[in-house]
C-alpha cells in the first residue's frame, strides 16, 4: 500500500456502479499502475441507526473469531476491510477456483480524495442510493482490482494510451454481469409446515412479490435461477433471455467497459423496444451479424460461455453449503451467542422438539453450521462477469476459452470472474431469519389474492356482446 491517492487524482476516477455496501470507480487516466483497474470504496449509511453491524472498529466480533477460527489469516487481522479481502483470498478463492477470483489489493487514499470523488459522482448515483448512503470518508483505503469488464490486449503486457476503439490497453470487448442469486430449492428437514412452499418455489420468485409490494421493482422478472444453473443449453438460454428482458439488478451489459444495458448502481427499467434498438446498434461494432440479430447472437454467446465454463456448477456447490436453511441455522446461531432461542421460545414444547438435535449439537457443529451458512450467503449474493473479445488471428491461443459463433463466423475469447464475494456478518442472522419469513408470507398472500381474482373473473364468465 505504498502509493497514496490524493485530491488531484480524484478526477481520473469515474463512477462505474455500486451495490448496497460499496461504490466502484473506474480509471480514465494515463498512469500505468491504474489502467485497466477499478477501485471499490466503502460507503456508510446516512442514518446512524443503520451503522449497527456495518462499521465495526474491530475486524471480527468475538463470536465471528470463533466461527472463522480455522482461517488464521482472517482472525489475525485487526481491520474489517482487510479481513474482507482476506476472506475472499483464503475462503472464497479456494472454494470457487483461483482463476475466477481476484481478491484485489488495498491502496491508500486521503480523505480529500474521497470527498472529491463523492462530489464528482453524486449526480450519476441512483437517487435512492444517495438517500441512504454516502462515501465513507473515514476509511483511508480503497480496494484496487482488475476491471473485469475489459479484456487486456492480446500481448497482455501492452499498455497504450486511448486507442481508436476508446479502450486503454484493451481489446474491444463486450461483457455481461449476472447476479444469479440462489440456484437451488432448499430441502432442509428444518423447514416448517408454514414455509414449506420454499421447497417448490425459488427464493428469487418469492422475493419478487415482496420487492413489488415495496416498489423496489416495477414488474416481476420471469428469470428462474434454476434454469440458469441447470446445465441445459435450452434452459440457460431461457434464463439469459429472461434476465435480458427484465434486468433489475441481476443483469448488465458493458461495451468496452461502458454500461449499455441495465442499471448503474442498482435496478433497471424493463427492456422495451427503444432500449433494445439502441443496444442492437451498439453491438453492431463488435458482433458481425445480419441486421437486427446482434443481440440474439450475444445472448447465444453468453449462454454458451455459461455452459462451457461450468462455473455455475462450482458456485452451486458453494451455495449448497447452506444445507439446513436459515430455519435450521438460526438455532445454531443462538447457541453460539448463548442467547435464548427466539424461535423455540415462540413454539410449544412439542413443536420445539423438531430443533432439539440442533440445540444439543456440539459447539463445533454449531460453528460449522453458521460458518457454512454465511459462506453460502456470499455465494448467493455474488455476481459473475463474463468478458468477450473477438478473436484476432494473431491472438495467442492457450490463455482463454473460445466460442465459435456459427451464425456470424466469429470466434470469441472469453474469461470469467466472480465479483462481490463479501464476508457476510454474523450479526445479520436474525435479519436473515426475519426476511425469510417476510418473503414467504408476502408471496403466499399475493398468490392468494391472485387466485381470488382469477376465481372472480371465472365466476363473472366471458363477456357477452350485446
Ligand atoms: O437478502 P437478499 O437476497 O435480498 O440480498 C441482498 C441484496 O438484495 P437483492 O435481493 O440481490 O436485490 C442486496 O443488493 P441490492 O442492495 O438490492 O442491490 C445486497 O447485495 C445485500 O448484501 P449486503 O447488504 O451488501 O451485504 C444482499 O443481502 P444478503 O442477504 O446477501 O446479506
Ligand atoms: N472488478 C470489477 N470489474 C468491473 N466492474 C466491477 C468490478 N467490481 C465491481 N464492479 C461493478 O461495480 C458494481 C458494484 O460492485 P459490488 O457488487 O462489488 O458492490 P457491493 O456494494 O458490494 O454490492 P452488493 O449490493 O451486492 O453488496 C458491480 O455491480 C459491477 O458493475
Ligand atoms: Zn431453537
Instruction: Give the low-confidence spans.
Output: 52-57, 155-167
Taking all Cα atoms into account, the compactness measure Rg is: 24 Å
Give the count of helical stretches.
Answer: 16
Q: Give the overall shape, derived from the CA principal axes.
A: globular
**What percentage of amino acids are in beta strands?**
15-25%
Count of individual beta strands = 15
C-alpha termini separation: 80 Å
Ligand identities:
MYO-inositol-(1,3,4,5,6)-pentakisphosphate, adenosine-5'-triphosphate, zinc ion
Range of helix content: 25-40%
Structural class: alpha+beta
Keywords: ATP-binding, Kinase, Nucleotide-binding, Transferase
Pfam families: Ins_P5_2-kin
Protein name: Inositol-pentakisphosphate 2-kinase
GO molecular function, one term: inositol-1,3,4,5,6-pentakisphosphate 2-kinase activity
Amino acid at each position: 500500500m505504498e502509493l497514496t491517492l490524493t485530491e488531484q487524482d480524484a478526477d481520473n476516477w469515474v463512477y462505474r456502479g455500486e451495490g448496497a455496501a460499496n461504490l466502484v470507480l473506474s480509471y480514465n487516466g494515463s498512469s500505468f499502475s491504474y489502467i485497466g483497474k477499478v477501485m471499490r470504496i466503502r460507503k456508510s449509511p446516512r442514518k446512524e441507526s443503520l451503522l449497527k453491524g456495518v462499521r465495526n472498529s474491530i475486524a471480527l466480533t468475538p463470536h465471528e473469531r470463533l466461527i472463522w477460527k480455522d482461517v488464521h489469516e482472517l482472525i489475525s487481522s485487526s481491520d474489517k476491510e482487510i479481513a474482507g479481502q482476506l476472506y475472499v483470498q483464503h475462503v472464497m478463492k479456494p472454494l470457487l477456483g483461483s482463476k475466477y477470483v481476484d481478491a484485489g489489493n488495498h491502496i491508500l487514499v486521503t480523505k480529500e480524495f474521497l470527498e472529491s470523488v463523492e462530489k464528482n459522482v453524486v449526480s450519476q448515483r441512483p437517487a435512492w442510493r444517495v438517500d441512504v448512503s454516502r462515501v465513507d470518508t473515514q476509511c483511508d483505503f480503497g480496494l484496487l482490482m482488475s476491471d473485469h469488464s475489459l479484456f487486456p490486449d492480446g500481448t497482455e503486457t501492452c499498455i497504450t494510451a486511448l486507442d481508436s476503439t476508446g479502450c486503454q490497453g484493451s481489446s474491444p470487448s463486450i461483457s455481461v454481469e449476472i447476479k444469479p442469486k440462489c440456484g437451488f430449492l432448499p430441502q432442509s428437514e428444518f423447514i416448517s409446515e408454514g414455509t414449506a412452499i420454499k421447497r417448490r418455489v425459488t427464493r428469487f420468485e418469492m422475493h419478487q412479490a415482496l420487492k413489488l409490494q415495496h416498489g423496489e421493482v416495477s414488474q416481476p422478472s420471469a428469470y428462474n435461477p434454476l434454469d440458469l444453473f441447470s446445465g441445459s443449453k435450452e434452459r440457460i438460454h431461457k434464463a439469459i433471455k429472461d434476465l435480458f428482458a427484465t434486468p433489475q439488478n441481476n443483469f448488465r451489459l458493458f461495451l468496452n467497459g461502458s454500461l449499455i444495458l441495465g442499471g448503474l448502481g442498482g435496478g433497471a427499467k424493463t427492456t422495451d423496444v427503444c432500449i433494445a434498438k439502441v443496444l442492437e446498434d451498439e453491438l453492431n461494432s463488435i458482433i458481425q451479424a445480419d441486421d437486427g440479430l446482434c443481440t440474439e447472437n450475444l445472448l447465444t454467446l453468453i449462454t454458451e460461455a455459461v455452459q462451457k465454463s461450468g462455473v455455475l456448477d462450482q458456485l452451486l456447490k458453494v451455495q449448497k453449503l447452506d444445507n439446513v436453511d436459515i430455519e435450521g441455522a438460526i438455532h445454531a446461531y443462538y447457541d453460539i451467542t448463548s442467547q435464548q432461542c427466539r424461535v423455540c421460545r415462540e413454539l410449544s414444547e412439542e413443536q420445539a422438539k423438531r430443533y432439539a438435535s440442533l440445540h444439543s449439537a456440539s459447539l463445533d457443529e454449531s460453528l460449522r453450521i453458521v460458518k457454512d451458512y454465511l459462506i453460502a450467503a456470499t455465494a448467493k449474493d455474488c455476481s459473475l462477469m463474463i468478458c468477450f473479445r473477438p478473436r484476432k488471428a494473431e491472438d495467442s491461443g492457450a490463455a482463454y476459452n473460445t466460442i465459435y459463433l456459427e451464425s456470424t463466423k466469429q470466434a470469441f475469447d472469453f474469461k470469467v470472474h466472480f465479483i462481490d464475494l463479501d464476508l457476510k456478518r454474523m450479526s445479520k442472522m436474525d435479519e436473515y431469519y426475519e426476511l425469510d419469513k417476510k418473503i414467504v408470507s408476502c408471496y403466499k398472500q399475493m398468490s392468494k389474492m391472485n387466485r381470488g381474482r382469477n376465481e372472480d373473473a371465472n365466476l363473472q364468465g366471458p363477456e357477452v356482446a350485446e
